Structure formats: structure tokens, C-alpha cells
Amino acid sequence: MSMRKAVGLAAIALMLCAGTASAEGRNVGKLSIGYQRVDAGESGWEDGISSRYWVNDNVGIEGNIFYNAWSYKYNDNAEVYDNSTLTGTVKVMYAPVVKENSRFYVGLEGGLGNYDYKDKLSPENDYTNTFWGVKPLIGVEYNFPGISELGLNFEVGYLFSSAKDDPTDDHDIYDNSGVRVGLGAHYYF
């Protein structure tokens, strides 16, 4: 899917849902802190700390910091190589449908990250890769009626990413772009 098609689909969704807001949303003007988990493709899932803020019933912004680290071991349980990823993202959201306890929103997320690879057996293979990502998305946030400060969210979008497995090896490069899912929980103060 090209960037032009993804932006076009998001624009169509906005036009179809425009003007359907029916109630005042929860937690407008309150800052939140929470947890966000995103599908990172072949790397598995990334967990991060998140902060979300609804400027008004329809417009929100969110910032995330994700960190993921893992090691590979062989039969003797000796660590052979380490990987780590640090990513920061900012998300802008527009909610065309606002209910008393929920919002349906479309958004655009962008971010920068760093992937670090350390080979303990062959240090000459170590590398660091800086990457960017842009993700048009749709999502929902739900607030429980008795616990309105707690917001749970689910999102799906298409990530356009420059992340590659090994930029020094032309035979071992994969494209990290694709459909991605996100889950989160935020507490509003």
C-alpha cells in the first residue's frame, strides 16, 4: 500500500464520520500517563511509556517512548549477540465520533528510533541503525463508566518505516513496513 493510498483512506474515513459526534467526551484537558504496546513486526512486541492529552472532544496528542532489548544464546547458554531498540513517537488524533465513554479516532503517528546490534563473537559485525517511521491509523479509546480516569485503547495502522535488519549486508535486509496493532492503557489526572 502506498503512502498516497493510506492518506486517501484516512481522508475518506474522516469525511464519512464527520459531524457524527454526539456527546461530550471524557478526560478533555487532562494529562495522562500510561502503557502502550505495539507490534514491531519481526522483532515481536515493543512496550513503552505513554502520555495522552485530549485538547478538546475531537483533537488529541500522544507521546511514546519504547525500549526493547534481547539477547540470543546457543546450546551452552552463552550470549552470542545483543540487540536493543529505542524509539520515540508522537501521535496526533482526530475523533469524529465521540460518545460519553468512548471515542473513535483516526490519526497519524511519526517517530525516530535507533537499533543497536552487538556481536560478541565477531565485533567487526557490530552496527547501529537510525530509522524513522510514519503510521496512519484508526483506533478507539474506552473509559469505564465507574472509572472514567482510566482509558483503554486499541489501534491498527500501516507503518511506513526505514528500519532494516542489517544495513551493511545487502543479502540480509528486510523491510519493517506493514500493518501494525497497538494496545494501551492511560490514567488521566
Plain-language structure description:
With 189 residues, the chain is mostly beta strands. It is 8% helix and 61% strand. The chain has 1 helix and 8 strands, in the order H-E-E-E-E-E-E-E-E. Strands 1-2-3-4-5-6-7-8 form an 8-stranded antiparallel beta barrel. A hairpin with a 7-residue loop joins strand 5 and strand 6. The radius of gyration is 19 Å and the shape is elongated.
User: How many strands in all?
Assistant: 8
Task: Give the helix proportion (percent range).
Answer: under 10%
Spell the H/E element sequence.
HEEEEEEEE
Spatial order of strands in the largest sheet: 1-2-3-4-5-6-7-8
Task: Bin the strand percentage.
Answer: over 45%
- Continuous helix count: 1
Quick check: average pLDDT?
Answer: 84
Note the topology:
Blueprint: H1 3-17, E1 32-39, E2 45-54, E3 59-73, E4 79-98, E5 102-119, E6 127-144, E7 147-161, E8 178-188
Antiparallel strand pairs: 1-2, 1-8, 2-3, 3-4, 4-5, 5-6, 6-7, 7-8
